[in-house]
Write a structure and sequence with these properties.
The protein has 447 residues and is an all-alpha fold. Among the domains are: 115 residues, putative deoxyguanosinetriphosphate triphosphohydrolase like domain (putative deoxyguanosinetriphosphate triphosphohydrolase fold); 76 residues, no CATH class. 56% of the residues lie in helices and 0% in strands. It is built from 21 helices and no strands. The relative contact order is 0.13.
């Protein structure tokens, strides 16, 4: 793979239009960032669970605040790489006119990386998959292809994000986001189809990155950018190099900020968090500086900022050092897993404690269980109604699905995706309210 191919301002759905003058207020990749910021799917992230239940009396992160913070870290990672590269190659900007935009590409991709996640965090993904593997959805196995069934039984937020950004929803216009090819490729952590996913020995195949319905679209982007295609029975590509920076920004933020939220909720004590973050802050005078601060929350915020700074430095240095291996598609690790010691061990300790004390905390488990019931309950009502639509009740349910999701396709897979588009896009609150109303648990008010 070569940077001159990998960096492209060509826009999805607007390939035949001239690229606007980049000397204006915004570059093409800054336009990507702004289009995402002002989009409805991005705004809905404010009411989607990150880890802890929403809303609460104590502020914790949601998907929107998480995505904004990831974008901030991602921009720094990209900018540091560009500055390092330019120092060693003064003629760089003449050779690669778009190389200076790497920070903006990473930031835009970071904003989009969670767009496809349904309500209730990762349990929402699991609940959708469970409906098809163990719920009423099992009856549809013989009505779709093997590859389509793999999409449904392993519903993937990464693939759903790519669909949201490229699918021509009714009334929205083809390519309504019209993001650049480079930004779209940079959100594909697992650039392969679902039948090729779930191979944990290869970083680009741990999950999958596009549904069967978007396979041709991803091929088009991958071909344009020169992504390395893997010779296999399935469609598989090596990662776009910028994916590593997007992934690193996400890893840095959720690992560190989940600790901060856990402290605010009194799940972890100040001393527990300090013991983890103080060595990660990598500042010999840090203990003295903390003594000057009285408020524990402020201390944690200071530790968080210094820790993130350390990890940005570690990951950006590693990306620069390993760029040739990454461009060859041979770097089979996330950046965070290959940083220097003692920081690598510290991050492993954070992961272990987070799993034990945060992700298995009672309220977190409760929201996961609720997600199964709510998401599964919505699917068991809407999917049969939309596919059959042969009763007064079914017709009324179908009327609740926004027209933008309704498809003209007649095959079962496309119809099921219509309902999944609708349900996966819901916020936590809307999903719960709709579930209660259609199940007769609560009665809608007349406004």
């Amino acid at each position: 793979m070569k940077w001159e191919n990998l960096l492209s301002a060509k826009r999805w759905g607007s390939e035949d239009k001239n690229i606007e003058d980049q000397a204006e207020a915004r570059s093409e990749f800054q336009r990507d960032y702004d289009r995402l910021i002002f989009s409805s799917p991005f705004r809905r992230l404010q009411n989607k669970t990150q880890v802890f239940p929403l809303p609460g009396s104590i502020f914790v992160h949601n998907r929107l605040t998480h995505s904004l913070e990831v974008a901030s870290v991602g921009r720094s990672l990209g900018r540091i790489f560009y500055n390092r590269l330019k120092k060693s190659r003064p003629e760089l900007d003449d050779e690669l006119p778009l190389i200076s935009e790497i920070g903006n590409i990473v930031a835009a991709a970071c904003l989009a990386h969670d767009l496809g996640n349904p309500a209730f965090g990762h349990s929402g993904e699991a609940a959708i998959s469970y409906y098809f593997t163990n719920g009423d959805g099992r009856i549809y196995k013989d009505k779709v292809t093997e590859a389509q069934w793999e999409d449904l039984t392993h519903f993937e937020g990464n693939a759903n994000a790519f669909r949201i950004l490229t699918h021509p929803y009714a009334g929205k216009g083809y390519g309504s986001f019209a993001l650049t090819y480079s930004t779209l490729a940079s959100i594909a952590k697992y650039p392969c189809e679902s039948l090729a996913g779930h191979d944990k020995s290869k970083i680009f195949r741990k999950k999958y990155g596009f549904f069967q319905s978007e396979q041709a679209g991803f091929e088009k982007i991958a071909t344009e950018l020169g992504l390395t295609k893997v010779e296999d029975n399935y469609l598989i590509y090596k990662r776009h190099p910028i994916v590593y920076l997007v992934e690193a920004a996400d890893d840095i933020c959720y690992n560190i900020i989940d600790l901060e939220d856990a402290h605010r909720l009194k799940i972890l004590s100040y001393r527990e968090v300090e013991d983890l973050l103080l060595p990660l802050a990598n500042d010999p005078k840090m203990a003295e500086r903390l003594d000057e601060i009285d408020d524990d929350d402020a201390k944690i915020s200071f530790l968080r900022a210094k820790s993130i700074n350390t990890l940005i430095g570690q990951c950006s240095e590693l990306f620069y050092k390993e760029q040739e291996s990454i461009l060859q598609g041979d770097f089979n690790h996330s950046l965070i897993d290959q940083i220097n010691e003692p920081f690598r061990t510290i991050m492993k300790n954070i992961e272990t404690i987070s799993i034990k004390k945060i992700y298995n905390y009672s309220s977190v488990v409760q929201i996961e269980v609720a997600g199964y019931k709510v998401m599964g309950g919505l699917l068991e009502e809407f999917i049969p109604a939309y596919l059959n639509n042969n009763s007064h009740y079914s017709k009324k349910l179908v009327e609740l699905i926004p027209k933008q999701f309704i498809t003209k396709e007649t095959d079962e897979y496309a119809k099921i995706q219509t309902v999944l588009d609708f349900v996966s896009g819901m916020t936590d609150l809307y999903a719960v309210e709709l579930f209660r109303k259609i199940k007769g648990i609560s009665f809608p008010s007349i406004s």
